[in-house]
Amino acid sequence: MTPALTYQDHRLFFENIALTDIAEKYATPCYIYSRKHIEQQWQTFSHALQDYPHLICYAVKANSNLAILHLLAQLGAGFDIVSEGELERVLAAGGSPDKIIFSGVGKTKNEIQRALKVGIYCFNIESESELQRINDIAQQQNCQAPVSLRVNPDVDAKTHPYISTGLKENKFGIPIDTAEALYLRAKDMPGIQLLGIDCHIGSQLLDITPFTDALKRINTLLQHLQDQGIHLHHIDMGGGLGIPYHSMDQAVSIDQYMQQLLHTLENNRYTLIFEPGRFIVGNAGILLTKVEYLKPTDEKNFAIIDAAMNDLLRPALYQSFQDIIPVQQHLDIATQEYDLVGPICETGDFLGKQRQLALKEGDLLAICSAGAYGFSMSSNYNSRPRVAEILIDGDSTYVIRQRETIQELYANEKIPHTL
Ligand code: LLP
Fold first, then answer.
1. Pocket test for ligand 1, best of 86, 243, 278, 314 (most atoms within 8 A of CB)
2. Which of 142, 220, 313, 350 sees the fewest Cβ atoms within 10 Å?
3. Is the same domain home to 197 and 319?
4. Is residue 13 domain-resident?
5. What is the CATH number of the domain that holds 380?
């Protein structure tokens, strides 16, 4: 459900641009994003917090294209990163280090050293060993590392198991019942400055209750910490707000989400930090693809398209639904049920199943809601160059990532002289 898509005379437009024109100019498959939608989502999120002290750190993993990071940096965004690669991207895009949060369970020594050197705002710590490592490195660098502990509040986010992170059995965070003891240890570490508390319970949540449940548990913990003389500055609620992928999905009211969080906080005034990814970019993007072949079989009809699971992994990995709509509406062709599959040699290579479409070979299709975890999860599997990314800005379009060339695919490979 990408809202900026409309039909005019049976041709699909993304904002003011006919998608046939984009295909002609840049070829398919390609990702296309709307600057306007990203800006609107950003404003919606930040306005919902009004003048309550907050910092919004866009989760870079959702879509890490430099142009998008730059756009968000200009809007005042902070960034949630999970690797040195993401750190360098944010800096290259003009993001300020003092608004960067470093999340993730496996931060390496090099990553920690670099993040301390550039002066990031905070590390979200996920284990006792990581706390110890960050303390040691900070002391070696003669500084204190600003940290939050990511607690695992043991709430069920009721989302796909692969993107659910807040349950005891998940690898993420510090179990909430042992967090107090770790805060007490951290308090005495000379290389550690305790700034806050963090949680991230999962992704694509369309229900607010798990967030408020998590915050209630955090509230109780914060009370205990205060009793022990530990006064924190911020609460990081992570990301996770879902977007409508399906016409039946009910969009979350961001105002309600914020109001309920503030209500749960009662009168405690902590700076609130958020790490939204999908909410900002998910419905700002589509993947444009072409039908190569129609292949009717006894069992079903396949439409073989030029995009595949290496370009957009979500349907194969999570059996997720993304709407697929035609760029040219045919009034003279009967609608049939199709499985939309890519050219990759895997049965799991599908982008959509059982879709009602009126199709001819050569038709273009828009795979909707592809702005988040689309390009950023793409790969070169089957030696397929990664596709181009295009940004629509008003009446203009810009290439924000060129299509990879075949030569780039093996440019870093070497044949040893002994072979
Ligand atoms: N913060 C942390 C610590 C995270 O792990 C994530 C996402 C986010 C923030 C952003 O979550 P969001 O607001 O985008 O839901 N590839 C999956 C989603 C994986 C999410 C991983 N962590 C998908 O395509 O659905």
1. 278
2. 142
3. no
4. yes
5. 2.40.37.10
d(CA 241, CA 407): 39
Three-class DSSP category at 302: strand
Tell me, yes or no, whether 257 and 391 share the same domain: no
| Dist. CA 282–CA 194, nearest whole Å | 33
* Residue carrying structure tokens 């009910």: 250
Tokens of 260: 């309920």
Report the share of the chain in percent with pLDDT over 90. Answer: 91
**Atom of ligand 1 at shortest distance to CA of 239?**
13
Q: Which residue is associated with the tokens 């049920």?
A: 337
Q: Are residues 225 and 309 in the same domain?
A: no
Residues with catalytic annotation? 345
Minimum CA distance residue for ligand 1 atom 22 = 203
- Tokens 């931060």 found at: 107
Residues 263 and 399 in one domain: no
Helices (H), 124-268: 128-140, 176-187, 209-227, 254-264
pLDDT of residue 248: 87
Is residue 125 pLDDT above 80, yes or no? Answer: yes
Work out whether strand 285-296 and strand 301-305 pair parallel, antiparallel, or are unpaired: antiparallel
- Rg (C-alpha) for the chain, rounded Å, is 23
Helices 84-92 and 66-74 cross at an angle (nearest 10°) of 60
Give the residues surrounding ligand 1 with Cβ less than 6 Å away.
Answer: 59, 62, 80, 103, 163, 200, 203-204, 238-241, 275-279, 314, 318, 372-373, 377
Q: Is the pTM of this model over 0.90?
A: yes
Q: Is the pLDDT of residue 164 over 70?
A: no
